[in-house]
From TrEMBL:
This is PqqD family protein. The lineage of its organism: Bacteria, Bacillati, Actinomycetota, Actinomycetes, Frankiales. It comes from Pseudofrankia asymbiotica. Pfam families: PqqD. InterPro entries: PQQD (IPR008792), PqqD_sf (IPR041881). Residues 16-26 have a biased composition (Low complexity). Signal peptide: none annotated. Residues 1-47 are annotated as: Disordered. Coiled coil: none annotated.
């Protein structure tokens, strides 16, 4: 998803700081718990330009002229944002469902990776969050 994720994603060790949750009866991994910012609306940052290159999207930050490449998975999430504000949680869940169906990845892993991508895009100023009242 991130430009550095073109290689194999890093191996994740299972958490050991608490009791393990039982797996759902259908055998699928449990979705991660909601995040406090799931209702915040995420928007493409002002002035950010993007270009489709086959299955990827390249983003141009207007302030510093830096480029950021999204692979096919990240590009799918970017397209979910479109031009309208979308609740962060809804955008991630829709993209994660598509990723899960297409690449046979566990939903929890897809959601975690997509949240990491949004966090990186926020850090770089390519998207902005509009907090919503709880």
């Amino acid at each position: 998803m991130l430009d550095s994720y073109r290689q194999a994603p890093p191996h994740r060790e299972p958490a050991t700081d608490g009791p393990a949750r039982p797996a759902p009866a259908d055998g699928r991994a449990e979705a991660p718990p909601p995040r406090p910012d799931d209702l915040d609306e995420v928007r493409i940052g002002p002035g950010v330009h993007n270009a489709d290159l086959d299955d990827e999207i390249v983003l141009l930050h207007p302030a510093d002229g830096s480029y950021f490449a999204l692979n096919e998975t990240g590009a799918y999430l970017w397209r979910q944002l479109g031009t309208a504000a979308v609740p962060r949680g809804a955008a991630v869940r829709r993209a994660a469902a598509a990723v899960t169906d297409r690449w046979l990845v566990e939903a929890s892993e897809a959601e975690r990776d997509l949240h990491e991508l949004l966090d990186e895009l926020l850090r770089r100023g390519l998207v902005v969050l509009a907090p919503q009242p709880a």
